[in-house]
Amino acid sequence: MKRERLGFGTILLLGFLFLFFTAFLAYPLAFTLRRAFGLEGEFTMNHFRFILASPFQREAFLNSAFIATLTVFLSTALVLPLAHVVTAWKFRGRLLLSACLLVPMILPPFVGAIGLKQLLARYGSLNLLLIHFNLMDPAHTIDWLAAGGFWSIILLQVLHLYPVLYLNVSAAMAGVDPSLRESAASLGATGWRQFRTITFPLILPGWFAGAVIVWIWSFTDLGTPLITGFSRVVPIQIFDAVNDLNTNPQGYALVVLTLFLIALLFLATRRLAGASGRTVVPRGTGVALPVAGPLRTGLFWLAGSFLLALALIPHLSVLLVSLSGHWFFTVLPDVWTTANYAEVAAHGLTASAVRNSLVYSGLSSLVDFFLGVGIAWLLARRHLRFGALLDALAMLPLALPGLVLAFGYFAGFEIDERRHPLLDSWLDPRTNPVFLLVISYSVRRLPYIVRSAYAGFLQTSVTLEEASASLGAGPLRTLRRITLPLTAAHLVAGMLLTFSFAMLEVSDSLILAQRDRFYPITKQIWQLMGRIDPRSPGVACALGVLGMILLGAGLAVAGRLLGRRLGQLFRA
Question: What phi, psi does 139 have (nearest 5°)?
Fold first, then answer.
């Protein structure tokens, strides 16, 4: 394809994007990498040796790796039969069931952990219910949160992250021609043998790509271990190291080791996808899916509904806690009230947390709008030699944990005597984190609006833009009067996605917001859960419910605008 000469506007846009990615993506990572090998300019490997030699740090890495690995395998056990059912059978409500299975993805485990503690404590709702039906001895209750909340973290992460794996696996399974299974059946292969020898080998690259995303998200999850109180994991160790960066370099070394693991996993993904030697055979047009009868359809819906109900229970418990005035030694609250929501509106810090989240999320969605439209326009309308690199940079935040970026921002933009004090007031998170919070939210959610805008540009005929240019309109006027109105639905959906997910962003908020007047919702929830006041959990849950409502409303509108394309934004 012939490469066109770049105009002044295109060069200016490319220059701005280069500066943006250099300052807010490359620089924080490079700064962290350099500090990991010495604080005073020297080069040393001692920080890594200390981590590897420390029994506590080794335990933290093993715990995080074990949690992430179990999350992947348990998610796989849930996803494989569900994806097979949805892609291999025709039944009433198939598309609705598939969409419902994705709902837990929008429910943050950080909030669900609060409800899970109420349910699974030694005298929580589950044990009290079993005692009520004489199925448990009150003197010998089961500690469901044994091992300090280890298994509750895994449960919450499985119920939150299985939709990510489901999207990848179901997309891979949908591309497998059913005639392959029919041919195997005609040769005497049973259903399990068909799956083991035909289906799974063909979907393995897609499964592995989704499994890597789930593993990384689980390994770097900060909020859930914080709420459950399980501190012997890598994210908590990085979080604790934030306030001691100038004297203790262990935090830098932990982040670099985490990045090293992530890089190895993605290299393995590339190698598996490139060297597997297996190609998914496209679904044949002449092969119809078998139609499930009423009994089989009912079983499919029963299994999907059970999983969905299980995933929603912790968050329903959060709702109950937010409406409770007193909940102690009873299965359900014995006093119901809306005072917790009134407290959110009346109390200065909780009300400001809601306002702060709205402002930060709104500003970040605006930043993402301009960045996303610019990147999508370059990818769709300009044949750049380095277009693949630009696309990779825009998609990188999907795989890069927020914990790593937030740590890099906090460490890399600390007060510098060589900078003007006014600049320090904007860049140093200890003084005023607003700018860095907005930027971190923007960088983390940029891929959503880039993909939305790119899809919109591809569906808009370029001949309309050419006609506008032939009539004398410049590129900006054509973009404003022709392209943007035609892609408005995609752009609005992308902005809603960035806004909604920023509302309950955890890692960036917990690390960068250091002063209470700048706290967003998630940081205020964590602060409330650490107080002795018996009313604090109810207020924290009320904040969590408000955040989930805002997030759910945004995603519902975005889903209405994008339809099935919404799921493609979360695929690896």
Answer: -85, -10
* Residue 281 backbone phi and psi in degrees, to 5: -80, 125
Question: Contact at 8 Å (CB) between 140 and 127?
Answer: no
- The amino acid sitting at 413 is F
Contact 465, 482 (CB under 8 A): yes
Tell me the average pLDDT across 541-558: 81
pTM of the full structure: 0.85
Q: Residues 46-49: contacts with CB within 8 Å, 24+ apart?
A: 47/249, 47/250, 47/252, 47/253, 48/253, 48/256, 48/257
Task: Give the Cα separation of 352 and 346 in Å (integer).
Answer: 10
* Sign of the torsion formed by the C-alpha atoms of 190, 192, 196 and 198: positive
pLDDT band at 369 (very low <50, low <70, confident <90, very high): very high
277: left (phi over 0), alpha (psi -120 to 50) or beta: left
Whether residue 541 contacts residue 322, with contact meaning beta carbons closer than 8 Å, is answered with yes
What is the SS3 assignment for 441? helix
**CA proximity to 168, closest of 139, 121, 205:** 205
Amino acid letter, 5: R
| Interatomic CA distance for residues 176 and 413, integer angstroms | 49
- 506 in Cβ contact with 108 (< 8 Å): yes
pLDDT digits (tens, 9 = 90+) for 489-526: 778 878 887 888 888 888 899 999 988 889 999 999 98
Query: What is the residue whose two structure tokens read 């410049």?
Result: 474
β-bridge mates for residue 336, sequence order = 324
Cβ contacts of 188 within 8 Å, gap of 6 or more: none
pLDDT at 419: 57
pLDDT, tens digit (0-9, with 9 covering 90-100), for 69-127: 999 999 999 999 888 888 888 888 888 888 888 888 777 788 888 888 888 888 888 88
Exposed e or buried b per residue across 448-472, where buried means at least 16 C-beta atoms within 10 angstroms of its C-beta: bbbbbbbbbbeebeeeebeebeeee
CB of 207 within 8 A of CB of 76? yes
Domains of the chain, start order = 45-279 (1.10.3720.10), 318-572 (1.10.3720.10)
Cα three-residue angle 236-112-504, rounded to 5 degrees = 70
Bin 148: left if φ > 0, else alpha if -120 < ψ < 50, else beta: left
Least confident of 150-154, 163-167, 185-189: 185-189
| CA distances in angstroms from 110 to 10, 170, 365, 419, 482, listed in the order given | 42, 27, 22, 37, 42
| Cα angle 321-155-299, degrees, rounded to a multiple of 5 | 95
CA distance 84 to 176: 11
Q: In angstroms, rounded to a whole number, what is the distance separating the alpha carbons of residues 48 and 395?
A: 29
Amino acid at 193: R
Q: Decide if 307 contacts 78 (C-beta within 8 A).
A: yes
Q: How far is CA 479 from CA 460, 465, 466, 476, 486, in A?
A: 12, 8, 11, 5, 10
